[in-house]
Predict the structure.
Amino acid sequence: MLEPSGGGGVRGGPRAALVLATVGFFGGFAGVSVFGPLVPKFVQAMHLSPLEGGLLAAIANLTGSLLRIPFGAWVDAIGGKRPFLILLALALTGILGTAALVDVAYPARLGGLYPVLLLLGLLSGAGIATFSVGIGQVSYWFPRSQQGGPLGIYAGIGNLGPGLFAGILPVLVIRWGMVPAYLAWAGFLAIILLIYALWQHDAPSFQLAARGERVTAARVAAYGQELLPVGSAREGLERAARRPATWALVTLYFTSFGGFLALTAWLPSFWHAAYHLPLETAGLYTLVYSVLTSLVRVPGGVLADRLSIRYALTVNLLVIGVGATVVMLAGSAGIALGGTVVLAVGMGLQNAIVFKLAPRYVPDAMGGAAGWVGGLGALGGFLIPPLMGYLAGSRGGGHPYQMSFAVFLVLVLLNLGVVVWLGRLAPPAPGEEAGTGRRAAGGEWAPGGSGGPAPAGKGTDYGRY
């Protein structure tokens, strides 16, 4: 419990909030892999095309992306705990429903149930949307000058979920069967939901507002909170949407994080179809990519506090382009694996930098910015796999699946232009309203009202662009 000298303490603290948000995100984010590792089994049982298989692999990312927008913005109004719990509960429902459907219909009676599978994938994907909720939650607990490390830890460790489940799920299926494997997953998620519900607390401003107390910048600064929310989900989204930098960050995140989601869902099918690897090996190779991308994000968040971000963004994009090229030209699974490792490094570093820039460019609507960037950026996880599947299904020759990685070369070229554009968008100075050059008024917040960024003199070291 935190308590300043003036009394009236709040529950929880930055470290506990970070740990619990990370654990919750880890469990919810695993929904990326609800179908991906087992798509070859569903493709075989239901005679699906590469495009249909790609859509099934990616379907969880649709809700996981779009729900990030309203739920991320909702954090500005009420804090992160309630939105987080709702998303985890929806994901748990989807996974339990998948286990029930597989128990009743797999494999012989799945014909005609493809839409039902997609619906269950949509529910399971709700847990993925916890990302933007946790971003806002963690950001409000930490001052801006110290957010790179905590956000890198939150996203990096949380991002391990899909890769670990992509590697473990096929093994559990082989040893236990599909239904027990999905039920074990549901039990794990239920435990995480319970832990989060019991011990997580919102940032000080939300706790004080919930008690009907006056919330000021000076009051919450005594607890270490620097950012103040705008107090309305709609206002947070509108403020963030008015910032050109928000849309630049969306584009960058579409490639790096959307690409990460896409490949985590697509790679099991890629390894199986392109190189005829067994599902266990395909899951292991996917695990290598996903875990490395996630772990790189942790030091990437720390480096984002220290590096010239413009040059880091450019280098990361070039690394992604090199990795995609290696996979496209690979003559063996080993070389292709090396290419995905290069992709993992570039995407992991890029993911860390993007959300370091979000509180810098949109300090007065962090939840709204996290919603737009996390939601529309992550939509790449839904859009890219079917596009890759379309390329794989429409191309002739001996390497159609390898050439599907050309999608990332196009995205890299687009993003290099965005980096130049972002460099011309000056972030607001501390104490000014984003995009206006005016000193923020008030310094006070209450639900439904409008707040401002932190006072001048605090959190001024954001890293150089």
